[in-house]
């Protein structure tokens, strides 16, 4: 699986040419918790300059058309300038996000403010691995933990309006656990690791156990629904614990 990530990183670097400062693997494949065929490959590219329209087009095609050989469920690429990476702001600009997962493809170009990038920068700096160019700590400046937590809390409040969305219930619950763990310990864990940690901390939160079972089961057979009230209990608990 690392070989596939390395191939994609080389292709990204080839598109950027001399401007490619670093292409960093982060997320579960770099830090642990990767599930073959079910996890995504997460990459962050740092460019010495803004991207041209032609480069944006080529990177979009690369992410859309890359053959993952069934080894991963998708691939996510974020591209930022070296200036953005070196001194992250609370609303960092983004050159490109291109993501493919489960048959869906999404693109965002030249976003003036991309607050969700904060978590990506924080994870890449803490546990990323350079597949091309400079190491993460050399190109990514410190991201204040509070910024990452505050952005996570915004999502928690949004998800409280979506607790009946059972298709995404496990994602919301386990991502909430990741936010909680980061707020308490300052480290980034996988969904499974963070869920197990949170369940030990608060065994009464039944939705966490259900979400972990769903994560283990994957797409094998039917899954039991997670009651909206139990999803809400997790989200509300994490909001309280991260104030």
Automatic annotation (TrEMBL):
Keywords: Transferase. CDD domains: NT_KNTase_like (cd05403). The keyword Zinc-finger does not apply. Residues 20-82 form the Polymerase nucleotidyl transferase domain. InterPro entries: AadA_C, NT_sf, Polymerase_NTP_transf_dom. Residues 138-204 form the Adenylyltransferase AadA C-terminal domain. This is Aminoglycoside nucleotidyltransferase ANT9.
